[in-house]
Amino acid sequence: MWAAEQGSSGSAPADTAAQIAEGKSLFISNGCGWCHEDGGRKAGRCPQLMNSPRDDGFIISRIVGGSPGKMPAFAQQFKDTDIQALLVYIRNLKPDS
Fold first, then answer.
1. Where are the domains of the chain?
2. Helical H runs in the chain?
3. So what's the pLDDT on residue 41?
4. Check whether domain 26-91 has CATH 1.10.3720.10, yes or no
5. How many CA atoms within 13 Å lie on the side-chain side of 68?
6. Three-class secondary structure of residue 67 per DSSP
7. How far apart (Å, rounded) are the C-alpha atoms in residues 4 and 27?
8. Per-residue pLDDT tens for 61-97?
9. Predicted TM-score of the model (pTM)
10. What span, in angstroms and rounded, lies between the C-alpha atoms of 41 and 61?
11. Residue 13's pLDDT is what?
12. Fewer CB within 10 Å: N-end or C-end of the chain?
């Protein structure tokens, strides 16, 4: 089981701002915005992530395992701390001003 699913941040930065910055960097560098437009703020080819009604466990599971034909699995690319940073980034998305 992933540490992020267990609620443990492992060696993730304790500072939320640092986690958001790391999550944003991972989101951009791994091409997540290709499907989740405007940094996850808008629905595009895939659902909007901002204000997602899905729980943390679902989001983590989707990042790790993907969804056949819809989203690639990232279990091999991301460490637990990366997944936690992505989750913190997603949960802290705000509309662009």
1. 26-91
2. 16-29, 37-40, 56-65, 80-91
3. 95
4. no
5. 0
6. strand
7. 17
8. 999 999 999 999 999 999 999 999 999 999 999 987 4
9. 0.81
10. 20
11. 47
12. C
